[in-house]
Write a structure and sequence with these properties.
This is Lipoprotein lipase. The protein is of the alpha/beta class. It is built from 10 helices and 21 strands. The protein has an 11-stranded mixed beta sheet, with helices on both faces. The longest helix is centred in the N-terminal third of the chain and has 26 residues.
């Protein structure tokens, strides 16, 4: 019985206050942003307070994106947050885009903030579980996007939800303190029905690189090899400082790391032509053009339009990109057999190749072969920023050395080339090019050799592909 003088609350209020009390230790905040205001946290969903969900106009019949930021020096959101929110709303106008605010925990010393990912993950999981318990909101409609430390917080959240969430996208998950961590304390493939990961800044030794090096999802994509991104070098740095002053210097440190987010934004905004990534055993094999196959799920789309392929082992995938949006390029494998009567070997030789197609051309694409020897076949990767259409003709030039060499002056070395084989990654088409004169003589420092599409009917499947 109630003590004399105690106030008896009506049971409804009492149950509500207990519910709110259950969640009172959740420090992370959950802001439902709107397409009209992608930059401000104007309305918060409060775990345990059902009315907050109605107040913020949460759409129960649509999918929900939860954006989880990473470590921050300033204690403020970085400039990419509203950009990602806007792109998600542009692609899925009826969805709910929730920004998870753990800024106070994210602005500590890095190891402290890294440790807090466990608590943030717990907060997010408790919020998601509450949404399911309270409103029957299906977890199959939930897609978590975590950047840097936020990717691991997303992984921990995914491992603690009652049912699996549909998808987690890891945007360059943080490396230090996580490279050698066990699966439960970092992002791993078990954390959602599907986990896709972009690795964009893995430069350095494992455990010391800003971005995690090992694969931690079902599909792990390493743009430009994953180490470092084009347009993020020191020359760019000087240009940015000249244009925008020193205020954006932190952008330079983060350039490659943050590229993961901009690649994903690009996939949301340019859905009709996604960038293709290719499964490969190593960066080196990819650079030789040996991995441009789309058979048996060997290629996939980068970003939002990815095909949800779950293999037993994580697949590492590679692609090249441009230095700015739109990032898509067109990949080609080129195979050349160098013939000659005298055996000779040259190392680190510079060449240029020009491709001419039905739509456009891409001229003087530089490439270097580590070695060129007589009667050997070499395969290498080149890529164009423009879609040149169907290939019709190509030119190959062997460049002279940048320094003067007596031997080349007396007689310039050369090889005979009959055919050049080209495979286009994006269309999966293979084309064989023949010399106009049966055999082309490619001489160092001399005019380029020209090859046109062969019309030889005998060039069937057995032609060396």
């Amino acid at each position: 019985a109630p003590q004399p003088g105690s106030i008896v609350l009506p049971i409804t209020t009492w149950s509500k206050s207990v519910k709110r009390r259950d969640f009172i230790d959740i420090e992370s905040k959950f802001a439902l942003r709107t397409p009209e205001d992608t930059a401000e946290d104007t309305c918060h969903l409060i775990p345990g307070v059902a009315e907050s969900v109605a107040t913020c106009h949460f759409n129960h019949s649509s999918k929900t994106f939860m954006v989880i930021h990473g470590w921050t020096v300033t204690g403020m959101y970085e400039s990419w947050v509203p950009k990602l929110v806007a792109a998600l709303y542009k692609r899925e106008p009826d969805s709910n885009v929730i920004v998870v605010d753990w800024l106070s925990r994210a602005q500590q010393h890095y190891p402290v903030s890294a440790g807090y990912t466990k608590l943030v993950g717990q907060d997010v999981a408790r919020f998601i579980n509450w949404m399911e318990d309270e409103f029957n909101y299906p977890l199959d409609n939930v897609h978590l996007l975590g950047y840097s430390l936020g990717a691991h917080a997303a992984g921990i959240a995914g491992s603690l939800t009652n049912k699996k969430v549909n998808r987690i996208t890891g945007l360059d998950p943080a490396g230090p303190n996580f490279e050698y961590a066990e699966a439960p304390s970092r992002l791993s493939p078990d954390d959602a029905d599907f986990v896709d990961v972009l690795h964009t800044f893995t430069r350095g030794s494992p455990g010391r690189s800003i971005g995690i090096q090992k694969p931690v999802g079902h599909v792990d994509i390493y743009p430009n090899g994953g180490t470092f991104q084009p347009g993020c070098n020191i020359g760019e740095a000087i240009r940015v400082i000249a244009e925008r002053g020193l205020g954006d210097v932190d952008q330079l440190v983060k350039c490659s790391h943050e590229r993961s987010i901009h690649l994903f934004i690009d996939s949301l905004l340019n859905e009709e032509n996604p960038s293709k990534a290719y499964r490969c055993s190593s960066k080196e094999a990819f650079e030789k053009g040996l991995c441009l196959s789309c058979r048996k799920n060997r290629c996939n789309n980068l970003g939002y339009e990815i095909n949800k392929v779950r293999a037993k082992r994580s697949s590492k995938m590679y692609l090249k990109t441009r230095a700015q949006m739109p990032y898509k390029v067109f990949h080609y494998q080129v195979k050349i057999h160098f013939s000659g009567t005298e055996s000779e070997t040259h190392t680190n030789q510079a060449f240029e190749i020009s491709l001419y197609g039905t739509v456009a051309e891409s001229e003087n694409i530089p490439f270097t072969l580590p070695e060129v020897s007589t009667n050997k076949t070499y395969s290498f990767l080149i890529y164009t920023e423009v879609d040149i259409g169907e290939l019709l003709m190509l030119k190959l030039k062997w460049k002279s050395d940048s320094y003067f060499s007596w031997s080349d002056w007396w007689s310039s070395p050369g090889f005979a080339i009959q055919k050049i084989r080209v495979k286009a990654g994006e269309t999966q088409k293979k084309v064989i090019f023949c010399s106009r004169e049966k055999v082309s003589h490619l001489q160092k420092g001399k005019a380029p050799a020209v090859f046109v599409k062969c019309h030889d009917k005998s060039l069937n499947k057995k032609s060396g592909w």
